[in-house]
Amino acid sequence: VLFSGTNSALQWRPWGAQVAVVRHEVPCSPCHRHRCPWIEHPCMSGISPLDVMARIESLLSRPTTTPPQPAPAAPGARSALAAELAKLTRSAP
Length: 93
Prior knowledge:
This protein is mainly α.
């Protein structure tokens, strides 16, 4: 479960089959700021612990599924990684 207001949920959501994002929509979100100009931090103060617990409970009550497999690497990426690993193992003491 991710609870966030300053960042884009699509960018920072957890990976997997049983994930959830808890948000309190406000006009200034997502702002990507390090410091909020609003004293009350509306995007975060609008999320209660009860909201987060309710989302966790809903996830735990779902039947478990096999998580999706990651997308295959781009062509050539695996061979480039293998070459880097080979260099590292040859130079290891």
